[in-house]
Amino acid sequence: MSFSELGLRSELVNAVAAKGYETPSPIQARAIPAILEGRDVLGGAQTGTGKTAAFGLPLLQTLAASEFKTKRPRALVLTPTRELAAQVHESLQDYGKGLNMRSIVIFGGVGFNPQITACRRGLDIIVATPGRLLDLINRGEVHLSAIEILVLDEADRMLDMGFINDIKKILKTVPDKRQNLFFSATYSKDVKRLADSILNNPVEVEVAARNATADLSLIHI
Length: 221
Ligand code: AMP
Prior knowledge:
There is one protein chain. By secondary structure, the protein is of the alpha/beta class. It has helices at residues 10-18, 26-36, 51-65, 82-95, 113-121, 130-138, 155-160, 164-171, 189-198, and strands spanning 41-44, 75-78, 103-106, 125-128, 149-152, 179-184, 203-206. It has a 7-stranded parallel beta sheet, sandwiched between helices. The radius of gyration is 16 Å and the shape is globular. Bound molecules: adenosine monophosphate. Adenosine monophosphate is lined by residues 19, 21, 24-25, 28, 47-53, 216.
């Protein structure tokens, strides 16, 4: 199985080749076709399984495929920490470098102005931690009315960190009709409840990582 056999366009196939990825990891092989079909996905996956590309590649392809032009963001990725937000954003930039997408990473603890300036300029993708994003929404600087794809990355950690109310407030500002991709390493009652409230008839994709820094070469489909 190759990345092009999963249905990805040449710009994305070339970008992952440039990163040195030879074959899709198990979660990529299962999630990418489902996401390209427009399905919601519930992914049980830890960091180290290749989950960022599993949602990032089809997200970029879906945005690049549609003619719809707006200054407002069309995809939102929520992550628990600024480190993960920065890492996901960097990966999306690497994967999407042939596609002319505008993206921004938003997190707290730094000045507002560069984030506000970038939002006003117009963008396609926001990667954000919930607190600062909500702050910018409340200030009228971020409008999520054009969101087509919502990703919750490491949902269990977002709940552990007490982001549930921020997430609920953010969800009130995104359109009802959208694609939802939900990733979590663990599934407590609270995580399941949140997943149920967000997902519509999801494809379930579960992969077992050996540990938090799984060696992808050791995972076989
Ligand atoms: P993630 O689980 O998304 O944090 O990815 C873990 C690491 O695996 C990152 O360093 C990725 O660049 C790398 N990676 C993701 N997909 C693949 C793949 N198909 N082949 C090789 N490495 C990959």
